[in-house]
Design brief:
This protein has ten helices and 13 strands. The chain is α+β, with helices and mostly antiparallel strands and about 325 residues long. The strands form four sheets. It has a five-stranded mixed sheet, covered by helices on one side. It has a three-stranded antiparallel sheet with strand order 1-3-2. The protein has a three-stranded antiparallel sheet with strand order 4-6-5. The protein starts with 12 loop residues before the first helix and ends with a strand.
């Protein structure tokens, strides 16, 4: 709890991201975008414009590969960007795509150099091979190319417009950094993950990080995003907290045990139950579609969440 700043010790957005190492980005905003929800779980109600300011104005944070990172991590991630010649399935697919779309890549980089920053929709789809429309991604392949080039450190996300990513040449956005060998970078990133996790399982035995503090964490109550790092590893969550949790978004409605977007309830250092809140932005209502387990302190968490969201009322199940 202390390593994850869920004990009430979190004070600022920047220091929270630095301690956690990164924030996962997810577009689902049934309650709030997960990067905002993870921060609320630790800070309580806070000014969400602070995250944007740190990302796009002060540049103390940056967005890469669907995560928000502290700028101090950039040298380590640049090592990953350089290692695009790996043998994983996605690395091979990316190389094949770039090989088949060399002129498409040149066009996009030229347009960004001359007209950037740009949204993906402001670039023509000049992919060599057209694809059939996808129910999530459509038929255009501009975003695919930009994500590949972003992963390789050739372009960067430099802002948002209407929730859409703005792209520009990475050399115009990222600061100069030292060069770190890939192996060293991965070791440092793993050490960072261990520090943020607090404990890890190695060959069947739990190991605490040297900086981990096992003091009393109090009885603070909050709700957790399904993508919160405390519960991201579902097997670890079950082993540590005896709490079985699955995100059922992609489970057919008839087969769901609980609901579409259910949040665990954390009290002190125990996961005691779960609830399914949904924020109706049109009416300003925070609805609770269901709640399970020990919900005796759920109202406290909902009150804080409503304040954070700017909800005018809370509507619980009849």
């Amino acid at each position: 709890m202390r390593a994850q700043l869920l004990d009430g010790s979190a004070r600022t957005v920047l220091e929270t991201v630095r301690q956690l190492g990164f924030l996962q980005i997810d577009p689902i905003s049934t309650v709030a975008p997960t990067q905002q929800l993870v921060l609320w779980s630790r800070l309580g109600p806070y000014d969400v414009t602070e995250l944007d300011r740190l990302l796009w104005v002060e540049r103390k944070l940056f967005e890469w590969n669907a995560y928000v990172w502290p700028i101090e991590t950039l040298p380590l991630l640049r090592a990953r960007m350089r290692s695009s010649g790996g043998s994983s399935y996605w690395q091979r697919r990316a190389r094949e795509f770039l090989k088949a779309n060399a002129s498409f890549r040149r066009y996009v980089l030229r347009e960004l150099e001359q007209r950037g920053p740009l949204l993906a929709r402001e670039l023509e789809d000049r992919a060599a091979v057209k694809r059939a429309p996808h129910r999530w991604f459509g038929a255009r392949q501009v975003a695919t190319l930009l994500e590949i080039l972003g992963g390789r450190g050739e372009v960067a996300i430099v802002g948002r417009r209407g929730g859409q990513r703005l792209w520009d040449l990475a050399e115009r956005w990222y600061p100069e950094t030292e060069s770190v060998p890939v192996r060293e970078a991965e070791q440092l990133l793993e050490a960072q993950r261990f520090r943020a996790a607090g404990v890890r399982l190695v060959r069947g035995r739990w190991h605490a990080h040297p900086e981990a503090d096992d003091g009393d964490v109090g009885e603070r109550v909050t709700l957790l995003s399904p993508f919160d790092r405390l519960i991201h590893d579902r097997a670890r969550t079950e082993a540590l907290f005896d709490f079985h949790y699955r995100l059922e978004m992609y489970v057919p409605r008839a087969k769901r045990e609980f609901g579409y977007y259910v949040l665990p309830i954390l009290v002190g250092d125990e996961l005691v139950g779960r609830a399914e809140p949904r924020f109706d932005r049109k009416t300003g209502t925070l609805k609770v579609l269901g709640a399970w387990g020990d919900t005796s302190r759920l109202d406290e968490a909902l009150t804080s969440l409503a304040t954070f969201l700017g909800a005018s009322r809370i509507k619980e199940p009849a």
